[in-house]
Amino acid sequence: MPAEWARQRAVMLTWPHSGTDWQTQLDEADSVFLAIARAVLQRQDLLISCQDPQRAQELRHQLGQAGSDSGLTGTVTVIEAPADDTWARDHGPIAVITDGQTRLLDFRFNAWGGKFDYHNDDQLNQRLAEAGGFGNLPLVPVDLVLEGGSIESDGAGTLLTTSECLLTPTRNPSLDRTGLEEALCQLLGAKRILWLNHGYLAGDDTDSHVDTLARFCAPDSICYVACNDPDDEHYPALKAMEEDLREFRQSNGEPYRLTPLPWPDPIHDEDGNRLPATYANFLIINDAVLLPVYGVPQDGTAIETLADLFPQREVVPIDCRALIRQHGSLHCVTMQIPDDLPSGGVA
């Protein structure tokens, strides 16, 4: 499984529509998706699945004006297909590269253990493949529940994940930790798996996806969500997660370079529930990092931190306050599709 910083051919988005929980804030969500789409198309291709035929046609017109005048040099493909929600990170295919050839693994998706409707999302990859959305890349069905947001790859044989998510019995009840490790190593080409046993975000429906908590920035570098407020409910769990990270070692026995991310001011919904704002939910694409920001004072520090971590890439902040109202953020709504290149490399 390549690292996210490996060269990419496209990013996949599943567009929000009125038949989802986005209905009450559809215009706001649509604006965020457009911002992500344009940032991607400035650098690479984009695949969009869209349930609403009228909106699909509008997107072809809005985003299909590639050329120097628009700044959109990538190609957009819009395919009409039903979807239950928009979390492409978790229902999209997971790519692996073998001998320079990319294959897309179509894991089963059950909405984080059956929490929500998921049948259309579980069938979406097959529908996109049948419509030519993945070009000549083969789509391989895998009879295992796995979400892309639950795993991080360094591109060199190490996976990072959380025990809270992968060991939840509503996903793969017949597999214990050893069984899951064997399956993931075989399917994703991993040599070892690092398990975070602590860490969570209030308002997160995914059972602590790793892409909300800690991310590989290079084979020897991990950034992570850090809370320094002892009065915050997250403080004990995130401090314990920090200790987990400090105990991890690279495959050569050296400790990782660890970089804490800013802790954003609390953001709540209209009912007073805390929303899962996190700067760890960024997306690495060709020559850029798309960073979710939330209109809070810590946004500037987060931009500076990511710029230091990825000095060869432009950091593009995108206001994702609308996304966290549905309990996800920027990385959660995207899935990258790599080029046919060796995995690994440097950030």
TrEMBL record:
Short name of one Pfam family: PAD_porph
InterPro entries hit by this protein: Peptidyl-Arg-deiminase_porph (IPR007466)
SUPFAM superfamilies tied to this protein: Pentein
Highest taxon, organism lineage: Bacteria
Designated name of the protein: Agmatine deiminase family protein
Keywords in alphabetical order: Hydrolase
Protein species of origin: Marinobacter xestospongiae
